[in-house]
UniProtKB/TrEMBL annotation, chains A, B:
InterPro entries: GDSL, Iah1-like, SGNH_hydro_sf
Pfam families assigned to the protein according to its UniProt record, in alphabetical order: Lipase_GDSL
Protein name per the record: Uncharacterized protein
CDD domains (UniProt xref): Isoamyl_acetate_hydrolase_like
Taxonomic path: Eukaryota, Viridiplantae, Streptophyta, Embryophyta, Tracheophyta
Amino acid sequence: MRRQVVLFGDSITEQSFRQGGWGAALANAYSRKADVVLRGYGGYNTKWALFLLHHIFPPDSARPPIATTIFFGANDAALSGRTSERQHVPIEDYKQNLRKIVLHLKECSPTMQIVLITPPPVCEEGRHAYAKYSKSFFVTANVYKNNLALSHYVDWIDQTALYCRVMYLSLYGENAMKFPERTNEVTGQYASACVETAKEIGVFSVDLWSKMQETDGWQKKFLSDGLHLTPDGNAIVYQEVIKIFNEAGLSADNMPLDFPHHSEIDAKNPEGAFQQKCF
Amino acid sequence: MRRQVVLFGDSITEQSFRQGGWGAALANAYSRKADVVLRGYGGYNTKWALFLLHHIFPPDSARPPIATTIFFGANDAALSGRTSERQHVPIEDYKQNLRKIVLHLKECSPTMQIVLITPPPVCEEGRHAYAKYSKSFFVTANVYKNNLALSHYVDWIDQTALYCRVMYLSLYGENAMKFPERTNEVTGQYASACVETAKEIGVFSVDLWSKMQETDGWQKKFLSDGLHLTPDGNAIVYQEVIKIFNEAGLSADNMPLDFPHHSEIDAKNPEGAFQQKCF
């Protein structure tokens, strides 16, 4: 059975197999070496993630993952008293929850390589534009949905994205546009808390919040709606995670292929290659 | 444990998690519902695939895949007496090998949905241009490789692609350019054989060879080097496979989420949602 690398996180993980996604790029890099397994839960914070922990990482697994990325915080950092309040987790609880997740994984496997990833920076202007766009979209969709099946109307767009937008507007309505539900400053505090926690418990971390802001124009270059990632933003996550996997002794280049490379197979005696090399 | 969809095939499967890849698109569509597992083996034909069958699909598995795509033929159809001769498999053997693969999978699980995919069409001109490019690339790489680490020099290109090109040229040298190693006509015969076999044994098939040629300019629109797929070519495979999965009762839209959607979680009583819905 192939070893696994699990990507555990919120929507930024859930969307990581879309066009240009960092999860798909990892799956490609570890092809024939390890399976990259998607466990992304849009909208989740660390508090809700704890409910999934024992299901996704059963303590008695005979083959626990060789590595796991833990990528939460974008929702924990939603502001109290604003439209996304229900996702808010106080910063001390966020740290405590990350610790619980890591300790559980270490119990599953003391050799598992664990990487905490901080939330990306937030572009408040981008979030506002997204809320406005969602509103106009919602109105248009409402006009149409009595006339024809919504699924036909939205053939040309990502249905999941539509669902999120409709949910968002129906939950928050007009208020969604008035006050930002996340700020870059507060998300930065969660990012620091994530990096500190990783240091305290001795696991790797990617400070994505800081890394992205090193590049001019990060707001549009890396973020599609002020929060989620563009293909360029995905590339940053991929590069940072693969760098850490390489440091941690999990370089794909150094892992053996599962079966012979085709050039090693003698067409007249194929059995030979397969007898020698079947992992 | 999450159900699995396995993608079993040659390089066109192995590369299916690259930018715009059909495998990644499937993984995204089945996110939170099934794991899409990559089992692609560049350069392999159906004869060599048989050696992997019992390793990848152990007959005694308690949780066999719910669906498998079988995507071989591009290498089987390599011409006898040309540079890729070692990959050639006679057409009757190709059919017989496909049958063996399907019968093995049916033994693993009689309810598994199986989709045979034909090789894509071949653009001989594209293959020739690729061989020429490979030659000039090989010469350049040789000049540089004594001066600096190859891995630094090729930072800007896909190292796997380089490896294949170097292998290709070192194996076949000058001859690679003289005669086509594959023709569209012969590959079309393998495609027909694949579709026939699927009908005979009662499994689904995608006639990719015919489907792609319905579009004007398929040679460059769908093929990057006369054989492998562009993002547009990948999109065709994705659309055709998802259409069959939908017909076969495996529509992602109709499969339940593994855990509650975040909007179903009551922030004051999150336990409630998780008690009700944990698959």
